[in-house]
Amino acid sequence: MPIIQADRLTRIGAALLKAAGASDEEANAVASGCVNANLAGHDSHGVIAIPTYIDRVKAGHIVPGAKWTIVQESPTTTVIDGHWGFGFHVNAKAMELTIAKAKTANVAACTVFRQSHVGRLAHYPMMAMREGMIGLATADSGRSPKHVAPFGGREARLGTNPISIAVPSELEAPFYLDMATSAVAAGKIALAVARREEIPTGWIIDAEGRQTTDPAQYRKGGALLPLGGSEGYKGSGLAAMVEVLCGLLTGLGFGVEPTGRHNDGCFMAVFNVAAFRPLKDFRREVAEFARYLKSTPPSEGSRGVFYPGEIEYLREQERRKNGIEIEDATWDKLRSLAGEYRIAKELDLA
To answer: How many CA atoms lie within 13 A of 225 on its CB side?
Structure first.
């Protein structure tokens, strides 16, 4: 697998997206968002997704240059129609607006609908975290084809429905949660297929409802399992609540719409810490809390405790230094697109 530096990978992704019709701002938002996911170790949301986004542009499912609009709002709430624009771009604008409202009103929330895939969800709460606020985001895929079987079922009825919360602190590595409510993100199954790897038991079931380690079974009528293993009702319940916030509250609805157009619905909220207690004190105590968690002796076979967000930070430091491994199948697709758009030589991909 080739090893590519983050800056170069971002330039390649942005150039391909611009060639497909994205504006400079949209292309940079998507490419940097994908590469940041690679840096954090979430390769399922990295540049492996760029060819899919370009396919959706070609199909008319993503509309480059779409102007997002405010459907209704109050001093603390906003409902945003993305008009099928790039989710990375639309959702960031929605979070910027929500942060601005929280600076005045202390608490603010928004819903966003009719936008494409928003990428790694943590990006949006971390925008609030950098402003000294607590950010929360949840997302689902509207009435796009579903991926996750509800606990006890064999057919997909839920999305992977991630939840992310980011908290300001004095820590070097940011303190945040970013998790799917499924056992694993769907992109990790695609990644395993691309890398020709088996997957752990407990990630998926096949079309007959049997657990399997063959990732190819997922595309043959299988489904992801909810988070929690034998207690999967917990992940299934969380996913159902995300569907309510991001599918029903946004008006996207539930079930599957036949065209299969990917439609990320998002609910996001921001809480101004200073409205509850002094920000400086809160940031200090979050850091102290993280160190308290880490102070426990490790269990057998463990490297010790990592607080939420710490592993991603450590991976980012390593990958910024040593580069990002890109599976051959993804690299070949990027090179093929560069050839199609006649920019292979410009990007040194010939």
So the answer is: 24
Rounded to an integer, what distance in angstroms lies between the CA atom of residue 65 and that of residue 300? 53
Query: Are the C-beta atoms of residues 71 and 249 closer than 8 Å to each other?
Result: no
For 185-232, what is each residue's pLDDT tens digit? 887 898 898 888 999 999 999 999 999 999 999 999 999 999 999 999
Residue-range domains of the chain with CATH:
1-64+323-350 (1.10.1530.10), 66-144+160-182+255-275 (3.30.1370.60)
8-state DSSP, 179: E
**CA dist., res. 197 & res. 37, Å (int):** 20
Q: How many residues does the chain have?
A: 350
- 236: closest CA among 302, 172, 160, 293? 160
What contacts 323, CB < 8 A, 6 or more positions away? Answer: 3, 4, 5, 6
Is residue 272 within a helix (H) or strand (E), and if so which, with residue range?
strand 265-272
The token duo for 27 is: 């292309």
**Would you tell me how many other CB atoms lie within 10 Å of the CB of residue 125?**
27
pLDDT tens-digit readout, 258-281: 777 889 999 999 999 999 999 999
The whole-angstrom separation of Cα 229 and Cα 155 is: 17
